[in-house]
Structures are given as C-alpha cells and as structure tokens.
Amino acid sequence: MKYRDRNEIIAQILESANGNRIRLTKIMCDVYLSHAMTREYLTLLMKKDLLEYIDGERTFKTTDKGMNFLRIHNSVQELTPLTTKLQSNGR
C-alpha cells in the first residue's frame, strides 16, 4: 500500500461515509486503519464538523462541510498529475 498523508486518509473516511449512515467497523475496513487510528480520525472529523455521529443508530455520516472538503480535495487530486508532469518536464 502506498503512503497516505493525513488529508488522503480524511478524504477516504469522508468518502466512506458519503451520504450514508455507516458504522465504525465498515469505516475501518474501507480505509484500512486500526481501531485506535480510526477513532482518532473520527474524533478529529467530528470536532471539525466534517462528520456527524448519529447516537441512536451508532453510525457516522458526512456533513455538508465534509462534502465540501471532499469536492475541494478531489479537485486538487485531479490537478496533481499535471503539476507532477510539469515538474518533471522542467528538470
């Protein structure tokens, strides 16, 4: 598995819970994180209002703010091959 930075992991978690009500275990499996790491990221995402916890169902759901983060992240990812190509041509 390739190295993933923090933003990539966050985007994968938000994508996993994208419009769905999803449980912790499913997020762990989708994103390939340990239980402890998943809990750390989920806590961070809830503090930043990117993810919400539905207590009665014990599920997580991406918020509108989280969806906006995903759109921006995906736009940047589309540009990354272009900047990499430009850097290699400039050498």
Walkthrough of the structure:
This protein is mostly helical and 91 residues long. The chain has one domain (6-84): Arc Repressor Mutant, subunit A (Orthogonal Bundle), CATH 1.10.10.10. Helices cover 65% and strands 9% of the residues. The protein has a two-stranded antiparallel sheet with strand order 1-2. It is globular, with a radius of gyration of 15 Å. 19% of the residues are buried.
Q: In a few lines, what is going on in this structure?
A:
This protein has 91 residues and is mainly α. Helices cover 65% and strands 9% of the residues.
Topology (elements, then pairings):
Layout: H1 6-16, H2 24-31, H3 35-47, E1 51-54, E2 59-62, H4 64-90
Antiparallel strand pairs: 1-2
